[in-house]
Amino acid sequence: MNQTIRNRSLTGAALALAVSTVLTACGGDTGSSSDAKAKETPAGGSAAPVADPLVAGYDGGLYILDGGSLKLAKTIELPGFNRVNPAGDDDHVVISTDAGFRILDATGQTLTDITYDGAKPGHVVRHAGKTVLFTDGTGKVNVFDPAELGKGKKPAGRTYTSAEAHHGVAIELSNGELLSTLGTEEKRTGALVLDKDGKETARNENCPGVHGEAAAQGEAVAVGCEDGVLIYKDGRFTKVDAPDAYGRIGNQAGSEESPVLLGDYKTDPEAELERPTRISLIDTRTAKLRIVDLGTSYSFRSLARGPHGEALVLGTDGAVHVIDPETGDVEKKIPAVGEWQEPLDWQQPRPTLFVRDHTAYVSDPSKSALHAIDLESGKKRASVTLPKSTNELSGVVPGH
User: Fold this and answer.
1) Which pLDDT belongs to residue 9?
2) What CA–CA distances, in Å, run from 247 to 15, 186, 279, 301, 330?
3) Rounded distance, CA 140 to CA 5, Å?
4) Beta 3-6 vs 157-161: how paired, if at all?
5) For residue 229, what are the CA distances in angstroms to 157, 187, 273?
6) Is 90 exceeded by the pLDDT of residue 399?
7) What's the CA gap between 227 and 44, in Å, rounded?
8) Can you list the pairs that 97-105 forms with residues at least 24 positions away whose Cβ atoms lie under 8 Å?
């Protein structure tokens, strides 16, 4: 049943990451011109279903690849800068364009007619069997069951509209609670929680610059702040302060196998682009934060979690750093690509890490390459050279 929830009573300091006039997402603000009609080009003329598909974005389109062999199955021309995220089922991926979210049937190699229109589509979150889309330009949240996408029509779902549009994020918990950020285009301060009927049950505005989210074991959810993180667990918020006055944790990665969240960590508010070498580990059981220096920098597309809850970071030294989240120890470094440097423009390609089950997929835009690496052995299982350098990298990730 469709449920529309609109909160008109937000008062006090509002929050939000400044939203520019272009498509917005976790690394910054993005631009796209994807209203143009997509053109689809099969590789080798085959339209057979793709097994465990990957989707890699390039400047002006999408590549769909077989997740095992990395064979290029189809090229879809889609002008502009497009973001890719798992939709939460076996077949689909969410594409963010300047006009809104579009659903790609990656297994069937075709863009569907399912769209969620709205300017500046931002974060896509999967949790507890639900997928949540946040449209920055309108402040609208769409919640749906990704299992319904296979029916070929837009799933019935729940919607909520923020009091003011902002660059935000939302997540629905297993009990039907919806956590959503608070903000305006100029300022952002925290988050609120609505019950399944749309009634506000909790709020905390002690999280300046709120950005990003992650869920840990036990369904503890954290959003990042410019001075630490804000954890929501068992019906209440807890603030975890950073050791620095400005200690921004804007991107996080969680795992159902671990109570500890992985986050980035930046300390220079004046930097045009800070290239941090330290990461944060947030223990949601104790509300304690640990800072670990990796000795190499990384980017916002470098964070992931392994099948056993390992914290994974793709460093600019070219290696995937495998970190024990309980101790902060780097257990091993898996060679993946050559040394690289994060570009100033966040929309420009850089090596990207995407993890599914026991496989780490790492792109190498400088060589138009993509590698599949076994996390247990550290060996490359497959590699491919693509026609063009890729930027974003994702794929289907079923069963949350």
Assistant:
1) 34
2) 17, 20, 11, 19, 22
3) 10
4) parallel
5) 29, 17, 21
6) no
7) 52
8) 97/23, 97/32, 97/34, 97/35, 97/121, 98/22, 98/23, 98/31, 98/32, 98/33, 98/34, 98/35, 99/34, 99/35, 100/135, 101/133, 101/135, 101/142, 102/34, 103/149, 104/55, 104/62, 104/76
Secondary structure tally for the chain: helices H, strands E = 0, 37
**pLDDT tens digits, residue range 231-263?**
999 999 999 999 999 999 999 999 999 999 999
Count of other CB atoms within 10 angstroms of residue 35: 12
| Distance between CA atoms of residues 11 and 184, nearest Å | 12
Q: Of 114, 117, 133, 115, nearest to 125 (Cα)?
A: 133
Chain segment 283-327, per-residue pLDDT in tens: 999 999 999 999 999 999 999 999 999 999 999 999 999 999 999
pLDDT-derived band at 351 (thresholds 50, 70, 90) equals: very high
Instruction: Give the whole-angstrom CA distance, residue 329 versus residue 294.
Output: 10
Q: What is the arithmetic mean of pLDDT over 341-358?
A: 94
Radius of gyration of the chain, Cα coordinates, nearest whole angstrom: 20
- Span between the terminal Cα atoms of the chain, in Å: 21
For residue 146, the one-letter residue type is P
Query: pTM for the complete prediction?
Result: 0.89
Q: Which helix (H) or strand (E) segment is 57 a member of?
A: strand 54-58
Is-contact 370 383, C-beta < 8 A?
A: yes
d(CA 374, CA 398): 19
Query: Who contacts 44 (Cβ-Cβ below 8 Å, separation ≥6)?
Result: none
> How many CB atoms neighbour CB 387 within 10 A?
12
